[in-house]
Amino acid sequence: MEETTSRELLAVDQFIEELRVVRQLSPHTLKAYRQDLKTLCVFLLEMQLSLHQVKVIHTRSWVSKLHASGSSPKSLSRLLSAWRTFFDWLATSKPAILLEQIKVNPVQDLRAPRKAKSLPKALTVEYALVLMEKAQQEVLAHQSHDEQWAYIRDHALVELFYSSGLRLSEILGIDCSITRGHSKEALGWIAWDSQEVHVFGKGGKRRIVPIGSAACKALQTWFNCWEQLVRKEDLLEAPLFINHKVQRLSPRTVQDRIKNLAIRAGLPIHVHPHMLRHSFASHVLQSSHDLRAVQEMLGHASIGSTQIYTALDFQHLAQAYDLAHPRAKVNK
Predict the structure, then answer these.
(1) Which of 17, 53, 114, 171 has the smallest number of Cβ neighbours within 10 A?
(2) 309 catalytic, yes or no?
(3) Is 155 among the catalytic positions?
(4) What is the pTM of this model?
(5) Is 202 a catalytic residue?
(6) In CATH, what number is assigned to the domain containing residue 249?
(7) Which of 218, 246, 269 delimits the end of a domain?
């Protein structure tokens, strides 16, 4: 069975390599594919099966076992998608390492258990403004402090998150240069003259999002500081958001900085970068009611992904009604 298992693992390696080279998927997505296919290989080893021997009854049993052990519907949906794509690739590519070719995809009609719909958590407009004001106040409070540059950077970060609704990976991918130019190889850049940010989002798609005036002002202040921190020889290719080693900020650092900023601001909820993205989408939709525009700015491939914010918009209207209408609470 060890020989058979080696064949399966080799097939997985070839599949992952094609995803990397041909489809140019991100390292994060490739890691998720590999993890899900590793789970498949574990089941194959347990039942002493080769890939061509897998049937629907097997995959259904494995998914049920994972669900019973606590895997969420979301995780199972991702896992089934990875398995389905893998078996499709085996059937069409017909790698020579397999003992027999795949004729039927054993995951084709299998679906994950339904997940309960959960609304994204967004800040109220008031809380969002409190957070922005706190970030600005901390810059002023640390004018004589050696670490003032970090507070200037954090202020620019939260303003850009809330102003443009970017993902954490998109913001950290933004590069900068002394000439304020950009190259086609850059993951992201600021178009200063037009007050826009260009980012490289999910699915390998580039998009352009406006930057509000408050965020532009904070970014300008940070850029002036950034120029003093970065060595002259690195000015042409340094990332915009850097740490004390003048290296690209890590996602964990950004998460911790925003979390602690919210605590210092006195907000009663845990704030994370993606909540600022949700807040951006919710607040723009509340004001404009333009779902397509919000979809475009968020970079959603499907309007269905954006429609969840309409529920938040309805919640906002319902709360406003309950507070304002004199007959809202009659007989409650």
Answers:
(1) 114
(2) yes
(3) no
(4) 0.63
(5) yes
(6) 1.10.443.10
(7) 269
How far, in Å, CA of 57 to CA of 81, rounded? 17
274 catalytic, yes or no?
A: yes
> Which of 7, 34, 274, 316 is the catalytic position?
274
Catalytic residue among 155, 277, 278, 283: 277
- From the list 67, 142, 202, 272, the catalytic residue is 202
pLDDT tens track, the chain, 332 positions: 444 467 888 889 999 999 999 888 889 999 999 999 999 999 999 998 888 889 999 999 999 999 889 888 889 999 999 999 999 998 888 877 776 888 889 998 888 877 666 667 899 999 999 999 999 999 999 988 888 999 999 999 999 999 999 999 999 999 875 444 555 566 789 988 999 999 988 877 889 999 999 999 999 999 999 988 887 766 667 899 999 998 999 999 999 999 999 999 999 999 999 999 999 998 988 888 888 888 889 988 888 778 777 765 555 545 554 555 555 555 54
**Could you confirm whether 167 is annotated as catalytic?**
yes
Catalytic position from the list 34, 248, 300, 316: 300
**Number of domains the chain contains:** 2
CA quadruple 19, 296, 261, 239: dihedral sign: positive
Phi-psi category of 10—alpha, beta or left, where left has phi over 0 and alpha has psi -120 to 50?
A: alpha
Q: Write the CATH number for 41.
A: 1.10.150
Identity of the residue numbered 142: H
Q: How many helices (H) and strands (E) does the chain have?
A: 13, 3
